[in-house]
UniProtKB/TrEMBL annotation:
PROSITE patterns per record: ABC_TM1 (PS50928)
Any Pfam family the entry gives: BPD_transp_1
Cellular compartment(s): Cell membrane
Protein name per its UniProtKB record: ABC transporter permease
Listed transmembrane segments: 75-97, 109-129, 235-258
PANTHER family cross-referenced by the UniProt entry: OLIGOPEPTIDE TRANSPORT SYSTEM PERMEASE PROTEIN APPC, PEPTIDE ABC TRANSPORTER PERMEASE PROTEIN
Alphabetized UniProt keyword annotations: Cell membrane, Membrane, Signal, Transmembrane, Transmembrane helix, Transport
Keyword Cell inner membrane: no
InterPro entries: BP-dependent_transpt_permease, MetI-like, MetI-like_sf
Superkingdom assignment: Bacteria
All residue ranges annotated as the ABC transmembrane type-1 domain in the record: 69-258
CDD domains: TM_PBP2 (cd06261)
């Protein structure tokens, strides 16, 4: 690991911990009500009284960003969890079965990979309807194919190892071999990919929320905060810039940590 990459681990971890703390305990960061506004304080620029300024209804933007971290990060984590579980199951079946079943499953995975992910997300959201959980499911479905390919490749690699063949010769059942030898050895690359995918999920969830498919207003969500600030770009730049910078900081932090984990996994 290079010195620059080591140097970036600490601030990246701090950014991610701050975002998680804001999601679980927003009162630690802001006591203001994210839904209650004061029209006498509308569109105030960032200052001591309002760290991130106020919006067109006089609501504290900092409080809305803090409270918006919970649904935004929750949707991203759920999406990655769905992608890991579904993709791992598909890849495990394909890598274990081989033959025609493997070919059939992987052709389906390749079809999913050929479809633009954002288009697939919009189709799933159109079927399920708008909402934070629905967006999370849509993002998870779109990312499952990537995990299935990684899991299949790891299963095939590990199956050819000497200790796996020795366990099979000793009479160990296939489910036991999969649980005790194959899955633990395939967990490293999947964990690294899941960390990288988390940053992508945060960005994708914000993009879908920006289009109006996330939590209904006035509930705060990072993407919807940017969308709500578009009419005021010329007069109140902080309404879009501040939530956008928060998203960028979180995505960069998660991606940096993901690259570090991936580098360590490749060295092993």
């Amino acid at each position: 690991m290079t010195f620059a990459r080591r140097l970036g681990v600490v601030p990246s971890a701090l950014v991610l911990l701050a975002a998680m703390a804001a999601a679980f305990a927003p009162a630690l960061f802001s006591a203001a009500d994210p839904l209650r506004g004061d029209l006498t304080e509308r569109l105030l620029p960032p200052g001591a009284a309002h760290l991130f300024g106020t919006d067109e209804l006089g609501r504290d933007v900092f409080a809305r960003v803090v409270h918006g971290s919970a649904p935004s990060l929750q949707a991203a984590v759920i999406a990655v969890g769905i992608a890991v579980l579904a993709g791992s199951a598909i890849g495990l079946v394909a890598g274990t079965a081989r033959g025609r079943l493997d070919d059939l499953v992987m052709r389906g995975v390749e079809v999913l990979l050929a479809v633009p992910s954002f288009l697939l997300i919009l189709v799933v959201v159109a079927v399920l309807g708008p909402g934070t959980r629905e967006v999370a499911v849509a993002v998870g479905v779109s990312a499952a194919a990537v995990f299935s390919r990684i899991m299949r490749a790891e299963v095939i690699r590990v199956r050819g190892s000497g200790y796996v063949e020795a366990a099979a010769v000793c009479g160990t059942g296939r489910p036991t071999v999969l649980l005790t030898h194959v899955l633990p050895n395939a967990a490293g690359p999947l964990a690294a990919l899941a960390t990288l995918e988390l940053g992508n999920a945060v960005l994708t969830v914000a993009a879908v929320s920006f289009l109006g498919f996330g939590a209904p207003p006035p509930a705060p969500e990072w993407g919807s905060l940017i969308a709500a600030g578009r009419p005021f770009l010329a007069s109140a730049w902080w309404l879009t810039t501040v939530p956008g910078l928060v998203i960028v900081a979180v995505v960069l932090a998660v991606n940096h940590l993901g690259h570090v984990l991936r580098t360590r996994s490749e060295r092993r």
